[in-house]
Amino acid sequence: MREIAATWMRGGTSKCWVFRREDLQVADQSVDEVLLRLYGSPDHRQVDGVGGGTSTTSKAVILAPSSAEGVDVEYTFAQVGIEDAKVDWGSNCGNCSAVVAAFAIREGWVRAGEVETGVRVLNTNTDQLIVQHVPTPGRVLAEDGSTHIPGVPFGGAPVRMGFVDPAGRSTGSLFPSGARRDVLAAAGGVTVTLVDAGAPVVAVDVAGLGPSAAGVVGDESPERLDAVPGLLARLDAVRREAGVRMGLAESPEEVARAVPKLALVSPPSRDADEPTDLTVRMLSMGRFHPAVPVTGSVALTLAAGTPGTVVADLVAAHAAATGADPGKGLRLGTPAGCVETFVETHADLPVVGVTRTYRRLAQGSVVLPDPPLMPSVSA
């Protein structure tokens, strides 16, 4: 039996256990095996581990100080399977990224500034540089819950996150197929935009799904969308074909469960409490997300700024009909509320970002039992 130092944190609309990279190095066991056992997987309840039984609460953040030029912290994200004995390393979680700067400052890896502190974070999953800024008045990390974001009922400490030059981090191109619109044969043919920024995303206009979408308009709750007969299966078929078209796998069966992400997009809802430019419902690990992944919002922002994409056409049509000015960023209508992105520059490179919050929930250690690591036959 082994105790592993860990910090439980909320980042954005997700929860994750945060580990120092060196602490997950266990003799004769891979990091995948260690994480699966710690989280209690495979088991839909994760009852014998620290996983929460949902995709947004079965995540790990693995950190180490960096010696690379222009980088302070190296960050690796792991999506730990729940019913599957598999850890997905293929993408980043933007919400979980929100915990990195604060953790690094508390660990002493980065010296706090007089008013605020900038931390240069390299996500190793996607080779993505993320510049984060957190308040540190008097060189003390401010962790009070002064800021609220959609999807979280309580306030948290703010972190401004900018993804530096995010296009093509996973595939080498903003539009991996070479086109701004593609027609996929899956489920009878669907027009999509395949975009890689922050994470690979397949954007699907709800109107293009046809009658088989059972009257879905795009602003329904995640629970209602999950319950639409056949919808999840059809969208997963679209997502898997898109993964092959993007060069992420050689066959639909080999496409990872977490990548690419899929976004159902539609015009702003008339019932929205705040003005938005686009309504989005995103899939996460086979179910609809309660808010929106940060990396997905980055991809949609760049797609919205490129004429001819499914996303840009929807945003432009809404602006023409209402006189709205979306500006450089994007206002996304999500199940939790409006998420607003920003566009700026860093060292003459484009930056797309969003403000998130974080909170430390617990700090101590998690216990790794001795092998065997897989559940018994009786389970």
Overall description:
The protein has 379 residues and is of the alpha+beta class. It folds into 2 domains: 2-165 and 356-368, Roll (Diaminopimelate Epimerase, Chain A, domain 1); 182-342, Roll (Diaminopimelate Epimerase, Chain A, domain 1). It has 7 helices and 17 strands. The protein has helices spanning 31-39, 94-97, 100-107, 222-226, 231-245, 294-304, 310-322, and strands at 2-11, 14-20, 59-65, 73-80, 87-88, 116-123, 128-135, 157-164, 182-184, 190-197, 199-205, 261-266, 278-284, 287-288, 331-334, 337-346, 349-368. An 8-stranded mixed β-barrel has the order 1-2-3-4-6-7-8-17. A hairpin with a 5-residue loop joins strand 9 and strand 10. The longest helix is centred in the middle third of the chain and has 15 residues, at 231-245. It is globular. The mean pLDDT is 93.
Annotate the secondary structure layout:
Blueprint: E1 2-11, E2 14-20, H1 31-39, E3 59-65, E4 73-80, E5 87-88, H2 94-97, H3 100-107, E6 116-123, E7 128-135, E8 157-164, E9 182-184, E10 190-197, E11 199-205, H4 222-226, H5 231-245, E12 261-266, E13 278-284, E14 287-288, H6 294-304, H7 310-322, E15 331-334, E16 337-346, E17 349-368
Parallel strand pairs: 2-3, 4-6, 11-12, 13-15
Antiparallel strand pairs: 1-2, 1-17, 3-4, 4-5, 6-7, 7-8, 8-17, 9-10, 10-11, 12-13, 13-14, 15-16, 16-17
